[in-house]
Structures are given as structure tokens and as C-alpha cells.
Copper-binding protein (Methylomonas rivi), 137 residues
Amino acid sequence: MHRLIDSYLTFFVFFIWIGAASAQASKVSLDTEFSLRVGQTVTIEDEGLVIKFKAVLEDSRCPVNAVCVWAGNGKAELEVIEIAGQNKTVLLNTEDKPKEIALKGHELKLIALNPPRIDGVSISSGDYAVTLYVKKK
């Protein structure tokens, strides 16, 4: 009986440790580039901002193995939650405007959308990641 309790206790502690480790990984500082995969959320330390990468709404970027007359555009949908609880949906682009947006005393900028497109290869929504940058205005 004690072995069973010890096993459950060890299992429980392990998952608390994993949860704490992943919670720490979801915080970033200002003036630092960071990446999010679709569905991931990050907190900007000491700034009262939470950013979630919701989806890629458009991906017409020129494939890396093609020659294009236009670079194309990638459009990312983000949700920004301020500490006051206000939610704002933000659409940022790789080539079109806006590439960055002003948020109460901060600027959020889309640096990159990955992976790059390859002609003939489809990208599933879960494979996308954005690289973002937040700074004070």
C-alpha cells in the first residue's frame, strides 16, 4: 500500500515540477526576440502583457525554391491580454502593413514567420511559429 502511495506521490511531484518548468519557459523580457508556436502563450516579464499566437491567416510568401516577382505575405493572428484584463486581437504581417503595432506604452513587432514555404510542400497549422519582439515606446 505504501509503495502505491509513494508511486502516486512521485508521479504527482513530477508533474508539478514539469508544470513549473514550462511556466518559467513562458516568460520573456523586453527587448528580446522570442518565438511562439500556434497556441502558445508568453508573458512579458514585469510589463503586464500576455501574448498568444492564435493562427496564420494568410501565407502567400514566395517559396524558397522558387523565383517570384512579389515576396508574398504571411499574416499572423495574435491575442494580446493586458494586465487590466483587456483582450485585443492583433494581425501582423511579414511584408504588408502593419508589421508592428503600438500597445499601451509598448510596440509589438513581427520579426519572422517560420517555417519558410517550399514549393510543393504544405505546412500544417501546428508547424507554424512566429518570432516576435516587444519594446517600450
